[in-house]
Write a structure and sequence with these properties.
By secondary structure, the protein is mostly beta strands. It has a single domain, classed as 6 Propeller (Neuraminidase). Helices cover about 0% and strands about 35% of the residues. It is globular and about 55 Å long.
Length: about 375
């Protein structure tokens, strides 16, 4: 097996069926960070503060009425979808990695093309990746001929007739490769845009202060460098990452990230400003004596490959590819539970929808999964 790319590969054997609700085998607390227990650190180090944006963990109450009390298929027939977000009006947007299409879902779940990025250079894990929405602007992370980039587009029109205005490139030339492109973008409660940049299959980049590869970046909505970033004049917020694909913030501002490991451990981390998370010197725990930040939870890549993530209340929900499971993590103690094991195949993303449910985005049609009739799809499930 190609160790450098195995985290997103389909398993060589079918994943074992695990009872939904079973406790996952993970490595958790008892670790320390700068003299704090990890549970205490999670609450004590949320990063820079600012006037909070609307909480991502509390959906509008008026949207939570009259929804099914079981799983519901929202959309079908998607091709290698990667990211799922909602506009300010509550309209779901989803993109397709290889086609370069950005789609809105109509009321009946029919996908409608909002726009297409014709210059996306798809291949391997590269292509049209993360989406983020701020007001009437759509932010897009994608792979181009010159590397990965972040662009901003005006989201014109209204639900059912959205279109993309002219794009502005905020950042380009990020390292890209057939794997480890990062790709997740999200606005934090401080109003800043966070961008995950993978090591692009060159692990030393993660520890190289002159490279943006293997980092989490933080920028203003216009692409500028915030004055309170850890290193003046640098977009780098944290370093020592292999391939981060999930970001979420608790109501207290604590920032979490999921990360693909290589041979041993996938990770869930609390992200602190200026933190170094050890890759490639350390995979998983054991880096504190070297000055690195240890994860709060780890899993075998066979059981995880965590990609997108969201938070509802005090519970994190992690979409897993190889593990084919939605994993919930209670942030008060970090107990883990597995949900829907094997039921929908590989899961690329999960989002908390305005109707109060979790929307799961499958990833079975990109050549690494076993596509089922109707794949890829979006499935809405009640928050457990």
């Amino acid at each position: 097996m190609d160790a450098g790319n195995h985290a997103e590969r389909s398993p060589t054997r079918k994943p074992r069926r695990r009872r939904a609700g079973a406790t996952a085998a993970i490595c958790l607390a008892g670790l320390t960070l700068a003299g704090l227990t990890l549970a205490a650190c999670a609450a004590a180090a949320p990063g820079p503060t600012a006037t909070p944006a609307r909480s991502t963990s509390t959906p509008p109450s008026e949207a939570a009425s009259a929804v099914p009390d079981g799983p519901e298929t929202i959309a079908e027939g998607l091709q290698a979808p990667w990211s799922l977000v909602f506009t300010a009006a509550g309209t779901p947007l989803v993109d397709e990695r290889d086609s370069g299409r950005i789609l809105e879902l109509l009321a009946d779940g029919t996908p409608r093309e909002v726009g297409r990025l014709d210059d996306v250079a798809h291949g391997g894990e590269g292509g049209l990746l993360g989406l983020a929405v701020r007001g009437e602007q759509l932010y897009v992370h994608s792979t181009a001929a010159g590397g990965n980039r972040v662009q901003r587009f005006a989201l014109e029109g209204s639900p059912g007739s959205y279109s993309l205005g002219e794009g502005t490139t905020l950042l380009d030339g990020l390292p890209s490769a057939g794997n480890h492109n990062g790709g997740r973008i999200a606005f934090g409660p401080d109003g800043m845009l966070y961008v995950t940049a993978g090591d692009a299959a060159q692990p030393p980049r993660a520890q190289d202060p002159d490279s943006l590869g293997g980092k989490i970046l933080r920028m203003t909505p216009d692409g500028g460098i915030p004055a309170d970033n850890p290193t003046p004049g640098s977009l780098v917020y944290s370093s020592g990452h292999r391939n981060v694909q999930g970001l979420a913030w608790a109501d207290d501002g604590t920032m979490y990230a999921t990360e693909f490991g290589q041979d041993t451990w996938d990770e869930l981390n609390v992200i602190v400003a200026g933190g170094n998370y050890g890759w490639p010197t350390v995979e998983g725990t054991g880096g504190e004596d070297l000055g690195f930040v240890d994860p709060i939870a780890v899993w075998s890549p066979d059981d995880a490959s965590p990609s997108g993530m969201t938070i509802a209340g005090t519970t994190l929900y992690l979409a897993n590819l190889r593990g084919e499971v939605l994993r919930s993590i209670d942030t008060d103690g970090f107990a883990a539970t597995e949900l829907f094991a094997g039921e929908y195949g590989r899961l690329r993303d999960v989002a908390l929808a305005p109707d109060g449910r979790l929307w799961l985005l499958t990833n079975n049609t990109d050549g690494r999964g076993d596509a089922r009739e109707g794949d890829d799809r979006i499935v809405a499930v009640p928050v457990p």
